[in-house]
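We emphasize that the prediction below concerns an isolated chain of 528 residues; any contacts that depend on oligomerization or on bound cofactors are therefore not represented. The input was used exactly as deposited, without trimming of termini.
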Amino acid sequence: MFRFPAPRARAALAALILPLALAAPAHAQTLVIARDMDVNSLDPHRGFCDTCQIVFSSVYERLVDLAADNKTIIPLLAESWTSNDNQTVYTFTLNASAKFADGSPVTSAEVKWSLERLASLKADPGFLMDGLASIETPDARTVVITMAAPNSELLGILAAPYASIVNAKVAGAAGAASGAGADTADTAESWFLANSAGSGPFTLAAYAADDELRLARNDVYWRDAPAAAEVVIRQVKDSVTQAQMLQSGGADIAMQVDADTAAGLSDPNVVVSTVPSFNFVYIALGAGAEGMPIKMTKPVREAIGLAIDYEGAIDLIVGGEGKLQAAPIPNGFPGTENLPLPKRDVEKAKALMAEAGVAGPVKLDAVYPSVNVYGVDFNLLMQKVQQDLTEIGIELALQPVTFPVWRERIGATGIPVTAVYYAPDYFGSGQYASFFGLYEGSPWYNRSHAAKAEDAANPNMAEKMAAALAAPADKVDAAFHEVGMEMISDRIIIPVLSPNLILAHRANVEGVRYSACCNLPLAEISVK
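Result of the prediction step, given as a token string:
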């Protein structure tokens, strides 16, 4: 039986323990994050969301990482790599010290199994492995990835959290499968909701949907240990409540404080800063949508683009905390330097409408998801666009809907005018060219129903994208600049603004930054 020591002994014991107790929080601190979680899966090869990026990059690791400058690829599990001249074969050498949370080494076999699983599950992030020809493992530390066509962006893709390397033995015992047929044979998704099998600085401790997600420090982590012993992500939907939690000390970091709420924060214990983001919101035109009362030709699409008051939208919707964006490729990504920024020109827009033989008023359905994303209220956004377009004789019938309804309609019949948002899946412009490019088979070729419109498809796009992916490092920017100019000319996707990211945290929190691959790198954060 435990017995309390005598008074003199207790005093001596206290003298020894007190300094340790005072030092303990630096080692055993808990980091609390308030955010509206959008988790759709905690399987790193199935999940596809902003919260997923944070969790996967903290629990798992990839062959390579993205540096704090958000553009330089640096070693992670791979200590070095090479590629052939035409960028179809990449050879990686793994760090011999890398190990999973169960202490077993990370070998080339796990890398092959994991990347092939990402491809074969056919889940949302599986497109990252499009064009994969083969993965060979000559020995335990060497991985050779061969692509079917040149791909200058493969390193950026492999830095994405969805390219996580998983402990095949542990996950396989829980029903995870890789290779042909994995999309039907794999039964591990529910297991990943309560367990993890990675080599990252944290492990998954617990997850309760619509409540909280807990991470625990990986005590056998093979690199520098994170400062936080535990990370708790609490489900908090609205901006005001997140800000209140910061002020009360109920949260260390609030991830979705909007510009209006941030402007009202004057607490000396709270730090609020803004940084440019790679996120953007855009208007999209369904050139071939059913029931279109006019021909949505390029002059009409150009007129719509010229009629939008971009500067006014930034001021109204995000309180001035945003940037203009030229093309559907984020500012700062390859190819975006010196692209022409959008400008409002109502008189030129009216002339183009007249040239197209369109006399107003023209009524167009504007169906869009009723969401608030990155501090952008889509209802307010579309009210602003509605007001702007009346000046050129276009009347929008605003129809806010749920995402499932929006997806069904845009796929089935198309939508004349809509609004959507996009955040990067990895650092590289190819993802935008393949998603927004108007060539047969691309998502927005299908969503805009370009095949039914006389001038919506862009036959040059696929060729220019292939040239950009095959370009040597010193030519990539120029090649993607051409891609960006093509997408600007198409005027199917019209970026309205790139909202700044608001970073809000307690004053005693250090290391908070925005990552283009991983959103919020938790291992770099500490609480003083």
